[in-house]
Design goal:
The complex is a heterodimer of chains A (about 110) and B (about 110).
Chain A (H helix, E strand, L loop, with lengths): L3 E4 L2 E4 L5 E7 L5 E8 L3 E10 L2 E4 L6 E7 L2 E6 L8 E8 L9 E2 L3 E5 L1
Parallel strand pairs in A: 2-11
Antiparallel strand pairs in A: 1-3, 3-8, 4-5, 4-9, 5-6, 7-8, 9-10, 9-11
Chain B lengths: L2 E3 L3 E5 L4 E8 L3 E9 L6 E6 L3 E5 L2 E6 L4 E6 L8 E9 L6 E3 L3 E6 L1
Parallel strand pairs in B: 2-11
Antiparallel strand pairs in B: 1-3, 3-8, 4-5, 4-9, 6-7, 7-8, 9-10, 9-11
Classes of the chains: A mainly beta (about 110), B mainly beta (about 110).
C-alpha cells in the first residue's frame, strides 16, 4: 500500500480553469509539502505545512493556494491555471520526531495547462 | 539564499564506480541529503550527512566536508537499474530548516 498518494496522476486543463491536486498520507506525519518539478530545475517548494493550523509559503507560491484539511490531507489549488504552471507536482511528508532528515514523496501529478 | 551545483549528466560503465559531486552555498548549514529519482518516478531518499565524513549504505556511500561546502555520492558496483537522476539537497539551520534541492545529475549506466 502506498504511504503517500496523489490524485489525479495526470491532468490536462485549459488556461483560466481552477484545478485542485490532492495528497493523502497514511504515515502519520505532521509535516507535508508541495513541490513542482520542471526539467533542469530540480524540485522547488511551493507550500509547506507543519500541522493542520500551520501553513507557510515556499519559494514559488504565487498563483497557488493550499488547504490542510486534516493531518493526512494536503491539497494544492491553482485558482486560474496558466501554461507556465505545466509541470510535475509532488507531495511529500516528513516526521520531525524521526529527525526530519528524510522526505517521503508521493508518485506525482503531471499537470498540463493548454 | 541557497544554491547547489552538481553535474547535469554522468555516464559510467556497469560494474564500475561513479562519484557525483555537489557543492553548495547556504546561509546556515544543517545537513546534506541525497535522493534518487527514476524517470517518471518519485524521488526516494538515499542518505543524509550532518557531520564530516563518509556514510555507507550498501553499494552507496555519501561524503560531506562542511569546511569545503562539498559533498558527494559514491555508487559502487554499478548496475543498470542505477540509471536515474540523483539530487543533492541542503537542509538549512534556523526555524524551519528548509530543504533546497539541486538541479539533479542524470546518471546513465552503460553495458
Amino acid at each position: 500500500d502506498a504511504d503517500v498518494t496523489q490524485t489525479p496522476r495526470n491532468r490536462i486543463t485549459k488556461t483560466g480553469k481552477r484545478i485542485m491536486l490532492e495528497c493523502s498520507q497514511t504515515k502519520g506525519h505532521d509535516r507535508m509539502y508541495w513541490y513542482r518539478q520542471d526539467p533542469g530545475l530540480g524540485l522547488r517548494l511551493i507550500y509547506y505545512s507543519f500541522d493542520v493550523k500551520d501553513i507557510n509559503k515556499g519559494e514559488i507560491s504565487d498563483g497557488y493556494s493550499v488547504s490542510r484539511q486534516a493531518q493526512a490531507k494536503f491539497s494544492l489549488s491553482l485558482e486560474s491555471a496558466i501554461p507556465n504552471q505545466t509541470a510535475l507536482y509532488f507531495c511529500a511528508t516528513s516526521d520531525p520526531s524521526g529527525g526530519d532528515n528524510e522526505q517521503f514523496f508521493g508518485p506525482g501529478t503531471r499537470l498540463t495547462v493548454l | 539564499g541557497q544554491s547547489l551545483e552538481q553535474p547535469s549528466e554522468v555516464t559510467a560503465v556497469e560494474g564500475a564506480i561513479v562519484q557525483i559531486n555537489c557543492t553548495y552555498q547556504t546561509s546556515g548549514f544543517y545537513g546534506l541529503s541525497w535522493y534518487q529519482q527514476h524517470d517518471g518516478g518519485a524521488p526516494t531518499f538515499l542518505s543524509y550527512n550532518a557531520l564530516d565524513g563518509l556514510e555507507e549504505t550498501g553499494r552507496f556511500s555519501s561524503f560531506l566536508s562542511r569546511s569545503d561546502s562539498y559533498g558527494y555520492l559514491l555508487l559502487q558496483e554499478l548496475q543498470m537499474k542505477d540509471s536515474a537522476s540523483y539530487f543533492c539537497a541542503v537542509r538549512n539551520s534556523g526555524g524551519y530548516q528548509k530543504v533546497t534541492f539541486g538541479t539533479g545529475t542524470k546518471l546513465q549506466v552503460i553495458p
